Amino acid sequence: MDSQNSTEEVYFLLLGFSQYPWAQTIFFCLLLMSYIITLFGNSLILLLIYCDTRLHTPMYFFLSNLSFLDMCYTTCSVPQMLINCLATIPVISLGHCWVQMATGLYLGGVECLLLAAMAYDRCVAIVDPLRYSVHMGPQLCGLLAGTSWTAAFLLTVVPVLTMPLEFCGHQVINHFSCELPALLKLACSDLRFYESLVVGTGALTLLAPFSFIVGSYGRILMAVMRVQSMQGHGKAFSTCGSHLIVVVLFYGTAISMYMMPQNKTIRDRDKIISISYGVLTPMMNPLIYSLRNKDMKEAFRRLLGKKIDL
Length: 310
Prior knowledge:
Layout: E1 11-14, H1 21-51, H2 58-86, E2 91-93, H3 94-127, H4 132-135, H5 138-161, E3 172-173, H6 180-184, H7 192-225, H8 230-258, H9 268-291, H10 294-309
Parallel strand pairs: 1-3
Antiparallel strand pairs: 1-2
Helix pairs in contact: 1-2, 1-9, 1-10, 2-3, 2-9, 3-5, 3-7, 3-8, 5-7, 7-8, 8-9
Main location: membrane
Family: Belongs to the G-protein coupled receptor 1 family.
Organism: Equus asinus
């Protein structure tokens, strides 16, 4: 195929780690294990929050949104990656590639905004605890979550749908899946305006929420420092520690992939970075929130107790 305008269907070859045959099997096993952990762990979080009325609070409302989002985020790309590991010639059609890219960008954008909403929730809980239950009511929580899902669509999917891509020469994507940076490297059309648009939307979906989170945790740190008791310090840091770990894992890798100067070719380092925010972070979320969260552990014990009684 010479261009997108041809009447024939365009297919892309996804290289992944195909140049390292010895790594394909190892990568498949690790990827499958992480996907199973992601689905099981996030499903368990959703089940616990739904069944236990003690967890019907703003914090766990946002966590349930995050768990559902992570299940969708990994399902967007990981099944295709698993199939490609077993395929002799891993190919993907232009239509499927476009849908995968747009969906991945959208869900990644939702996660950026949702993590910022979660930071705001923790900031209000620690800085102004007496008014927390009044301020973070169901309407505001629903508005923050709904805004995250809606704004991400406008900031990611809409610009991608207006991007006129034409592909020249070999349709070979040196990646596991269809990500925007890898696909833009194959385009032969003039994309200077859209590259600027990508940087602008990246600033709104990555840098702006990250700056807000940093500011929120700055306020949290100052509020914690005013607390005299060590027990109060420990409780505050325990409450925010899980969320902060997720923020560092997700934003650190995503910003390095989308906001840093890019080479003309995709390197193996870029593939590993995409695995970090697209696969490892969704897998780590349930582990971090369940292992470090006393309420989740107690809810799990109560759920097991009910099952045993039955």
